[in-house]
Amino acid sequence: MYVLTNLFLYIHNVIMNKQKLLDKCECMTLLCTKASSHWSSVKFCFNIPLVLTSSAMCIINSISEDANCIKIPNIIVNALSVLIMSLNNSIKAAEKFEIFKKLSNQFMILSQEIESIEGDIPRDKLDLIMLKHDNLIQDCAFEEIPERYKIMVGNQFEQADKYIPIQINGTIGNVSKRTNNNIV
Which of 9, 159, 162, 177 has the maximal Cβ count within 10 Å? Predict the structure, then answer.
């Protein structure tokens, strides 16, 4: 009887760990996708003024035959271009977009790997998956994700009674109480 009880607890614990890890990976996939979309928009917003200033330079230089007449407009447009490029380089929107896009894909791949496992997960495989998850979490710059996305994703997963990574739960200040899983 004691062996059966221990076996049942082990199986229950493995299933709970699998579901917990799957929920957290799905949550991070959604969060990183939203962050990637945000930084893509920021990148796009910086690219439009650069295109406009380049076009303005082309037009200004084509219109005038006297180089002295276009000297001041050239300086102003060049200064605007340099300012925009400097801001873009300091914010690094393109890099953040790529990082979150990559993380989103990696969390999705990990979710698919977890879902594909049928039945009991061998302890060594579970440890390996948890290590992959922990490494991805460490690579995620949570401070670069807008607060509204953390709150939105956290609330969606909490309402669906799914597990939330501590990094999101702690950020949005949710303290969820799970009665169906006996977690308080």
Answer: 162
Task: Note the pLDDT of residue 149.
Answer: 93
Give the HSE-up count for residue 47: Cα atoms under 13 Å, Cβ half-sphere. Answer: 9
Q: What domain range is 124 assigned to?
A: 2-164
Output the pTM of the full model. Answer: 0.76
Over range 144-156, report the average pLDDT: 91
Q: Which two tokens stand for residue 131?
A: 């290590």
DSSP, collapsed to helix, strand or coil, labels residue 160 as coil
Please identify which residue in the block is written with the tokens 């005038």: 64
Identify residue 49 by its one-letter amino acid code: P
Q: What is the pLDDT of residue 180?
A: 46
Residue 49 lies in a domain: yes
Which are the contacts of 19, defined by CB distance < 8 A and separation ≥ 6? 163
**Residue 175 phi, psi (nearest 5):** -125, 95
39 contacts: CB under 8 Å, gap ≥ 6: 93, 94, 96, 97, 100, 144
106 is a domain residue: yes
Does residue 27 have a pLDDT over 80?
yes
Three-state DSSP at 64 gives coil
